[in-house]
Design a protein that fits this description.
- This protein is of the alpha+beta class.
- It contains 7 helices and 14 strands.
- The strands form 4 sheets. A 6-stranded antiparallel β-sheet has the order 7-8-9-10-4-11, with helices on both faces. It has a 3-stranded antiparallel β-sheet with strand order 1-6-5, with no helix packed on it.
- A hairpin with a 2-residue loop joins strand 8 and strand 9.
- The N and C termini lie far apart (about 50 Å).
């Protein structure tokens, strides 16, 4: 937690000031997370300071909140094109991405829990975005977009999270999903140059060749690129208690006939809705399973 606060202060995220009259500070809390490797092993433990943005007031301490994210169609198409064209495919992890966004509203926040001496009455006046703020995602995307456009990248009209740059026969594409970035192109030198450009402006982690993105495992071979969601599928089975269940060739009995009045109403339908959402996401690499899901409904 100390390292997180030190990083926020060195980033100029806030300054300590007396609370102005008629201003109400928002709260904040610590969120702890275990970041896993693609194989499921622990990579590191993280403590993140999150603002209680639910207490923000529209028109007072935030205005617009929308920020585009990569379309799943683009997530599938880009590796496919890279495989067909023989492009290089790399990945970046933008460290504390939301903290780079600049705030244009007056936002005051209480001191982080566990910090501040006894009798301290000052509050944090935020100058940059913080996780949890309603406008945090939007401000980060604006900051990144401006940097990319300054580097002659052009934003796609089909997917606003896709940026492309051409220089003669050299082509580079950059796809953004919040703080995860995919780089694709036919010139490794241009990809390295893009990494250097971004690292000079933002703190990032170069993950090398694309291996794992949004729960999708990416395997490279001489025959092309294969996408797999094995780990995600196992998580679904574990979440639903079917991890040790035996596989079946058919999802349901072919002769089963269901009507609207069959069965009892679920006491908590949220778990069922969550499962349907997870199964739909699984169709990124298994589109035929979506057909089965429709057939069963």
């Amino acid at each position: 937690m100390r390292a997180e606060v030190d990083a926020l202060q060195s980033n100029g995220t806030w300054s300590l000031v007396p609370l102005p009259p008629h201003k109400k500070p928002i709260g904040c809390k610590w969120v702890y997370k275990i970041k896993l490797k693609p194989d499921g092993n622990i990579e590191r433990y993280k403590a993140k300071l999150v603002a209680k943005g639910y207490s923000q007031i529209k028109g007072v301490d935030y205005r617009e909140t929308f920020a585009p994210i990569a379309k799943l169609t683009t997530v599938r198409v880009l590796p496919s094109l890279a495989s067909i064209q023989g492009w290089h495919l790399h990945q970046l992890d933008m460290n504390n991405a939301f903290l780079n966004g600049d705030l244009h509203e007056e936002v005051y926040m209480k001191l982080p829990p566990g910090f501040g001496g006894k009798g301290e009455t000052r509050v944090c006046k935020l100058h940059k975005s913080l996780y949890g703020l309603k406008q945090a995602s939007r401000q980060w995307f604006i900051k990144l977009s401006m940097a990319l456009k300054a580097a002659d990248f052009h934003q796609s009209w089909a997917d606003y999270s896709l940026f492309v740059r051409t220089n003669g026969s050299k082509f580079t594409a950059l796809l953004v999903y919040v703080d995860d970035v995919i780089l694709a192109g036919n010139s490794l030198n241009y990809i390295i140059a893009t990494k250097t450009f971004l690292s000079n402006r933002f703190k990032l982690k170069d993950l090398g060749r694309l291996k794992y993105f949004l729960g999708i495992e990416v395997a490279h071979s001489k025959n092309g690129i294969a996408l797999c969601q094995r780990k995600y599928a196992l998580e679904i089975l574990e979440d639903t208690g079917f991890l040790t269940a035996k596989p079946s060739l058919f999802p349901v009995d072919h002769n089963l006939s269901l009507t609207q009045g069959d069965g009892e109403l679920l006491t908590d339908p949220s778990q069922y809705r969550r499962l349907v959402g997870m199964l739909i996401y699984l169709t990124i690499t298994r589109p035929e399973s979506f057909r089965k899901l429709l057939d069963n409904h």
